[in-house]
Specification:
Layout: H1 13-25, E1 53-61, E2 71-75, E3 80-82, E4 88-90, E5 98-101, E6 107-115, E7 120-124, E8 133-139, E9 142-143, E10 147-148, H2 198-207, E11 226-228, E12 232-241, E13 248-255, E14 269-273, E15 288-290, E16 294-295, E17 298-299, E18 303-304, E19 308-315, E20 333-334, E21 347-352, E22 355-360, E23 373-380, E24 402-412, E25 427-437, E26 442-454, E27 462-471, E28 475-478, E29 481-482, E30 488-494, H3 497-501, E31 509-516, E32 521-522, E33 532-538, E34 541-544, E35 576-577, E36 584-585, E37 588-592, E38 600-601, H4 607-610, H5 614-619, E39 638-639
Length: about 650
C-alpha cells in the first residue's frame, strides 16, 4: 500500500549516493550511526504486516457424555476418500495443519494459525459415535461453526432396494420389519436413541481404533453369534460407522448348539437396516430397532425364547446407491465363521458393565479393524445374552500428545534501518518444525530444523528467534544457545551466516529442541513456528518481521531513524516505504508451507520487480495475489537454492 504523510523524510545527496551504492553490493558498515528524524505517528491499522497467515478462533463441540476427551485433527483440504470397495481412506499425503483435544465436555476453543489461502477447515476424528468429518468455512475474520460432512453417495434411482416395503432380486428372500424411505431410512426405528456412557465410548475407542486394529483384537474374535439363555426382548442400536459402503445389515436365528453348516441351512434372514450407514438423513448415531423372532418363515413377535442363537449378516454395499462402488457379488459376510470362506472371522464382540458391543469388518480383503459397523445389543433382561461375550474392565484412557508439523521459508534484508535493494536474499533459511501439545492443548515441546540456504551479503549476519511471552527460565534448549542475559526466551542459532555457508558453498542445518518445564504454555500463535525470527547485522541491531517486536538487546536509537518508521516501545516495528514507488516494503518476510520451488531473486533485483504479483498483494492488503511467490518473472535471473 502507498504510504501517507508519515513523518518528514530527510535525505542528503552524497549520503544517499553512498547508501545506494551500499545497497547494490550489500556492503554496509554496521558502526555508522543512524540519522535521527522526528518520531512519526503511524496508525497500526494502516500498516500491512506482510503475513501470509491469519489467526482465528476455532470452536468445536462434540456431543459426548461428560468425561470424554476427544482427539481430533484439522486439515486445510478434505483428508478422506472412498475407494472402490467403499472403504473410507485417510489420505496419508494430506497433512493436518492443527491438532488437539477437546475438554472433558467435548468442547474446544483455541487460536489457529493457517495460510491466508485457506478457505475451509476439515475437522477429523476417529472417536466412536461422533461425526468422522466436519467442515468449517472461513468468512472474513471468523470461522463458522463446524458442520458434519456427508461422506455417503447420492441415491441411485435403480437400487435393488427401491421398494418401500419389500425386497427384490437376490435379496427377495429376506424378511423385513417394516418399510423404509428411498434413501434407506427405516420407518420402524425405536422412538428413543441410546445414550452411551463415557466408559463405553472410551473402551470402544481403545479396542476398535481407526485406522489400524489394536494388537489385543484377537481376544475379542470369539464366535460372533449371540446366544439367548432366557426369554428376552432384543434391541440393536447403531453406534458408529467408518465405511463408505451402503451395507444391508440383517440377522438369522438357529437353535443354540446347532449352527448352520452352510448358507443354505439358514431358514430365515431378516433385514434390520436397508442402508446401515450413519448419516443425518439415513440412520443417526444411537438409533435402534427392536428385533423379531422368525421361525420357519413365521414372525413369532418380539420375544426370543431361551435356546435360540442369533447370527448377523452383511450384504456389502447392497443398497447400491452408487454403481461404481457396488461390489456386492451375492456372497454375504456372516458372524458365524463356518459360513465364511476359510472360516474367516469378521466380527469382534465385548461388553463393558453389561453394555454389549459388536463390531464388523465389511469387506473380505481389507485390514481387519472391525469398526466399519459398530452396534450395541441390548437385552431385556440384560443377562439373557452375555454368557459368551468377553468382559472388558473400563479403564481411564491414557491421554497422549498431539503433534503438528510446520514448515516455511524466511528471507531478510540486512541494511535496516536504511533501505536496501529489497532483493530479500541477504539471509535465506528454510525451517521445518514439530510442535507437541499435551492433552490440555498446552505446548510442551518444540523441535526445529533450520537450513541456511543462502547469504547474499558481506555482513556477517547472525540468526535467532524469540519465543514471545515465554520466560527464559521456563524452558530448556538443546542444539542452540539460550540467551541467559534476557528475561524472555531468546534462542541464538548461529552468529555468522558467511562462515556457516563457507561463502555459499554449503547449506548447513541446525536442529534445536526446546522443552517446556512443568505443564507447558498455553497455545499462542506467537509461540508457534517460525516464532519471532530475526537476523543480527551487529550485536545491537536486529531485523525482524514487520510488526514483530525486538528483543531487549536491540538498541533503541536505531528505531524511527533513516528509512525506518518504527515507534519504539509501542510499535509498529520495522515499517518502511519504498523510495521508488512509495509502497510499504518489508525488511523480512515469511512464506509458510512447502516452498521447495521458491527461487530467490538475483542480487540487487528487487523482489517486487522479480515477482509481478508482489506489489498487488501489498496494495490490496493481502487480499489479492496471495500466491505471488509461485509466479516469478521468467526473464529474470535466479539464484538456485536447494
Amino acid at each position: 500500500m502507498k504510504r501517507g504523510k508519515i513523518g518528514e523524510k530527510i535525505a542528503i545527496g552524497a549520503f544517499v549516493c553512498l547508501l545506494l551504492a551500499g545497497c547494490t553490493t550489500d556492503v554496509y558498515e554496521p558502526t555508522l550511526e543512524p540519522k535521527p528524524k522526528p518520531i512519526p505517528e503511524v496508525p497500526k491499522d494502516s500498516v500491512f504486516d506482510f503475513s501470509m497467515e491469519s489467526t482465528y478462533d476455532l470452536k468445536i463441540k462434540y456431543d459426548v457424555p461428560e468425561g470424554c476427551r476427544v482427539p481430533f485433527f484439522v486439515y486445510a483440504e478434505n483428508p478422506l476418500s472412498i475407494d472402490e470397495y467403499g472403504n473410507i481412506i485417510l489420505k496419508e499425503e494430506v497433512k493436518w495443519v492443527d491438532a488437539g483435544f477437546t475438554d472433558l465436555t467435548g468442547a474446544y476453543l483455541e487460536k489457529i494459525k493457517i495460510s491466508t489461502m485457506t478457505d475451509k477447515l476439515y475437522i477429523y476424528t476417529s472417536f466412536p459415535s461422533l461425526p468422522m468429518l466436519m467442515v468449517a468455512t472461513i468468512n472474513g475474520k471468523s470461522i463458522s461453526d463446524p458442520e458434519e460432512v456427508d461422506l455417503t453417495s447420492k441415491v441411485e434411482t435403480k437400487s435393488v432396494l427401491r421398494g418401500a416395503t419389500s425386497l427384490s432380486g437376490k435379496l427377495a428372500h429376506l424378511h423385513t420389519l417394516g418399510g423404509w424411505k428411498g434413501n434407506g431410512r427405516p420407518d420402524y426405528l425405536l422412538p428413543e436413541k441410546i445414550s452411551i456412557s463415557k466408559e463405553a465410548l472410551n473402551t470402544i475407542n481403545k479396542i476398535l481404533p481407526e485406522p489400524k486394529p489394536t494388537p489385543e483384537i484377537d481376544n475379542y474374535l470369539i464366535e460372533g453369534d449371540i446366544h439367548v439363555t432366557e426369554k428376552a426382548h432384543l434391541d440393536i442400536y447403531i453406534v458408529s460407522t467408518t465405511t463408505g459402503a451402503h451395507n444391508l445389515f440383517g440377522y438369522y436365528c438357529y437353535p443354540t448348539g446347532n449352527p448352520p453348516k452352510d448358507a443354505n441351512e439358514i431358514e430365515d434372514v431378516t433385514m434390520i437396516f436397508p442402508n446401515s450407514i450413519v448419516n443425518p438423513n439415513i440412520v443417526k448415531r444411537g438409533e435402534g430397532v427392536r428385533l423379531h423372532y422368525y421361525e420357519k418363515g413365521i414372525d413369532k413377535g418380539t420375544e426370543f425364547p431361551a435356546g435360540v442363537s442369533i447370527g448377523w449378516v452383511i450384504y456389502n454395499d447392497a443398497f447400491g446407491l452408487n454403481p461404481s462402488l457396488s461390489k456386492y457379488n451375492g456372497k454375504p459376510i456372516y458372524s458365524t465363521s463356518t459360513l465364511n470362506a476359510k472360516r474367516e472371522k469378521f466380527m469382534a464382540s465385548f461388553q463393558i458393565n453389561g453394555f454389549v458391543v459388536i463390531g464388523f469388518e465389511d469387506w473380505t480383503n481389507q485390514l481387519k479393524d472391525y469398526n466399519d459397523l459398530v452396534f450395541h445389543i441390548e437385552a431385556d433382561p440384560v443377562d439373557a445374552i452375555t454368557d459368551n461375550i468377553p468382559e472388558v474392565k473400563p479403564e481411564p484412557p491414557v491421554m497422549g500428545t498431539a503433534t503438528v508439523d510446520y514448515e516455511g521459508l524466511l528471507a531478510f534484508e540486512d541494511l535496516w534501518p536504511r533501505q536496501g535493494d529489497f532483493d530479500m536474499n541477504d539471509v535465506i533459511l528454510r525451517y521445518k518444525s514439530v510442535v507437541t501439545y499435551n492433552h490440555e492443548n498446552r505446548i510442551v515441546k518444540l523441535e526445529d530444523t533450520f537450513k541456511l540456504l543462502w547469504t547474499g551479503a558481506t555482513i556477517r549476519n547472525g540468526f535467532g528467534y524469540q519465543l514471545n511471552g515465554v520466560s527464559r527460565t521456563d524452558i530448556g534448549v538443546e542444539g542452540a544457545s539460550l540467551d541467559n542475559s534476557q528475561r524472555m526466551a531468546v534462542i541464538r542459532v548461529f552468529d555468522d551466516a558467511l562462515a556457516e555457508t563457507a561463502h555459499n558453498t554449503q547449506t548447513p542445518e541446525y536442529t534445536v529442541t526446546t522443552t517446556f518445564f512443568g505443564d507447558g504454555y498455553e497455545k499462542d500463535p506467537m509461540i508457534l513456528p517460525p516464532y519471532n525470527p530475526y537476523i543480527t547485522p551487529s550485536l545491537d541491531k536486529e531485523v525482524h518481521l514487520t510488526l514483530y517486536p525486538p528483543t531487549e538487546k536491540a538498541k533503541e536509537s536505531y528505531f524511527g531513524t533513516d528509512d525506518d518508521e518504527s515507534v519504539y516501545g509501542k510499535g509498529p516495528y520495522y515499517v518502511t516505504y519504498s523510495k521508488e514507488n512509495g509502497e510499504q516494503m518489508p525488511f523480512a518476510i515469511h512464506i509458510p508451507g512447502s516452498v521447495e520451488d521458491f527461487v530467490v531473486p538475483a542480487e540487487s533485483k528487487s523482489i517486487d520487480s522479480y515477482y509481478p504479483g508482489f506489489l498487488n498483494w501489498i496494495q490490496t492488503q493481502g487480499e489479492e495475489s496471495k500466491d505471488w511467490y509461485l509466479h516469478p518473472a521468467d526473464e529474470n535471473p535466479k539464484i538456485p537454492v536447494e
